[in-house]
């Protein structure tokens, strides 16, 4: 049976449909985009696919994105890659950017040097998400040239309307990171961000991470494979197996996670032990944000890859990244991260249980907010850019009751935290 579009009662949509009927591919793509805005995803996908098959590069990218995320059709990452590669052959840098994003997972595409080539092409074309990803990448390095590049790329992305880049730029201008201090420019940017509803980012003293000199790229070189470097662990306990990681994330990476998470915060929930469904309780009084794959950009994916590899695991084993904010008095009372049978059955049981947790502190907490492990007698104080990692299962894969832990109440200031739960087997499709 052929697809039959509905009869329109929306005059604007009716006009777009009429234009598409008598016009070219661009008119059909405009109609498809309007349908997406109205939630008519299946019809939009059919229009994008038809235009993609006719060779429209923009439609090929949109068709690929809908296939990647399962919007208006079943998710099909390999088919998405096919469309993106066709668009890339037409010199579509947005297609190349999404291919780089997918390749970070090293499943549907190999994680190879083409990632860097594609990011560089996006930077040269002035594609804001590529500029932001490259800026955060250069911001991890010590060289003055790379630090200046970070600022320049954030400025360019901000000028092109990237609000997250503008938020990352503000503390650099104010503090003179990668540039001379520019208090007047910083104040002007602060006012514009405030008018746009962007909250100021909390202070972060996270240092630029120490990198093995053998793996430091030449200044100005895009080399996102640095996310694969595994920093040293400092073991703190054996049951649960628990370690600390110094200087995992840079200040820019911490700010990136806070800025992206702040837009999505909601009351934190816990999983009901009987139904496996989330519910708000007094056990957990923070706010959090979960990054659905459609919300992930290349910069966020690269940071998540770095966190997963620091936990000695691959990104495809990770659930969605969670960013949390604890205000004064808020806490997460003693709990365990492994899933009970009802919760596991409700969320991709083929991936197995949560074998490991890694939490990264994102800001400087004035007082309180430590992570406590009662069975081990260990308390970890929050330090921006540093992480705590622990196993939820024992060596035989059984839940380890000693993994009980708590986020102690924040006494002064606020605490921002990023958490990645890693499953025993593959959880993500790419």
UniProtKB/TrEMBL annotation:
<protein>
    <recommendedName>
        <fullName>Fe2OG dioxygenase domain-containing protein</fullName>
    </recommendedName>
</protein>
<keyword id="KW-0408">Iron</keyword>
<dbReference type="InterPro" id="IPR006597">
    <property type="entry name" value="Sel1-like"/>
</dbReference>
<dbReference type="InterPro" id="IPR044862">
    <property type="entry name" value="Pro_4_hyd_alph_FE2OG_OXY"/>
</dbReference>
<dbReference type="GO" id="GO:0016705">
    <property type="term" value="F:oxidoreductase activity, acting on paired donors, with incorporation or reduction of molecular oxygen"/>
</dbReference>
<keyword id="KW-0325">Glycoprotein</keyword>
<feature type="domain" description="Fe2OG dioxygenase">
    <location>
        <begin position="317"/>
        <end position="424"/>
    </location>
</feature>
<dbReference type="GO" id="GO:0031418">
    <property type="term" value="F:L-ascorbic acid binding"/>
</dbReference>
<keyword id="KW-0847">Vitamin C</keyword>
<keyword id="KW-0256">Endoplasmic reticulum</keyword>
<dbReference type="InterPro" id="IPR006620">
    <property type="entry name" value="Pro_4_hyd_alph"/>
</dbReference>
<dbReference type="InterPro" id="IPR011990">
    <property type="entry name" value="TPR-like_helical_dom_sf"/>
</dbReference>
<dbReference type="InterPro" id="IPR005123">
    <property type="entry name" value="Oxoglu/Fe-dep_dioxygenase_dom"/>
</dbReference>
<dbReference type="GO" id="GO:0005506">
    <property type="term" value="F:iron ion binding"/>
</dbReference>
<dbReference type="Pfam" id="PF13640">
    <property type="entry name" value="2OG-FeII_Oxy_3"/>
</dbReference>
<keyword id="KW-0223">Dioxygenase</keyword>
<dbReference type="GO" id="GO:0051213">
    <property type="term" value="F:dioxygenase activity"/>
</dbReference>
<keyword id="KW-0560">Oxidoreductase</keyword>
<keyword id="KW-0479">Metal-binding</keyword>
<dbReference type="Pfam" id="PF08238">
    <property type="entry name" value="Sel1"/>
</dbReference>
<dbReference type="InterPro" id="IPR045054">
    <property type="entry name" value="P4HA-like"/>
</dbReference>
